[in-house]
Amino acid sequence: MIGILICQITLSIILAAIFLFRPSLTKATAWKIVAFIGLSVLPGLCLIGGMNTHVQRSETTKFCTSCHIMVPYGQSLYIDDANHIPAQHFQNQRVPVDMACYSCHADYTIYGPLNDKIRGLTRIYMQYVSTPLDPAGIRIPGGFQNAQCLHCHAAARSFMENPVHAAMMDSLNSNHVSCLGSGCHDTAHDIANLSHEKFWKPVQ
């Protein structure tokens, strides 16, 4: 995909340069068609292809943890403790390893509501122009929604047959009781205590 995109961009630049220095070529009908393709169609395809490539890249764990402020969150995925929910999901491949962040935070990424996108741009501004946020101070507005857990777990046999879950399904579905904040699964990334944690090292 990236190779095709590079070819399209290169061809667009070449055609644009040709018509910039030889505009008289467009007098002929055939060259008008070539000019239309080179100056309108190809740049449009480049734009669509570039956006698609960037969107796919933005779903990767590598992309999410490439931002300095998110590095501790990436490190927390290797905490060697079964009580740390994100780490256990990541280490046991309950979510795709290369899309671990997106799998659990889809509502808060590039696909999220407009306000979340604007908030993300604000954080980028603070990172590079103003004062960066403290990683430990990052919070999801409104808290983590149970829907993010339930869209995978609600159909799992181990979840459905658990009597504790069955007894509170209405409260879980309505988000009245939080999966993370109710004393059940309340240890998430816990980056404030990273220096005291033991870490899992994958076998190479």
In short:
By secondary structure, the protein is mainly alpha-helical.
Shape: elongated
- What is the percentage of strand-forming residues? under 5%
Average of per-residue pLDDT values:
83
Task: Report, as a whole number of angstroms, the end-to-end distance.
Answer: 29 Å
Q: Report the helical percentage.
A: 40-55%
Number of helices: 11
Unreliably modeled segments: none
Biggest sheet details:
none
SS-based structural class?
mainly alpha
The gyration radius over C-alpha positions equals: 24 Å
Number of strands: 0
Order of helices and strands: HHHHHHHHHHH
Descriptive overview:
With 204 residues, the protein is an all-alpha fold. It has a domain at 2-58. Helices cover 54% and strands 0% of the residues. Helix 1 (2-21) packs antiparallel against helix 2 (29-58). The longest helix is centred in the N-terminal third of the chain and has 30 residues, at 29-58. The chain is elongated and about 75 Å long. The two termini are 29 Å apart. The model has no long low-confidence stretch (mean pLDDT 83).
Write the SSE topology.
Elements: H1 2-21, H2 29-58, H3 61-64, H4 71-76, H5 85-91, H6 100-105, H7 114-128, H8 146-153, H9 157-160, H10 163-167, H11 169-173
Helix pairs in contact: 1-2
List the defining traits of the structure above:
54% helix, elongated, 11 helices, 204 residues, mainly alpha
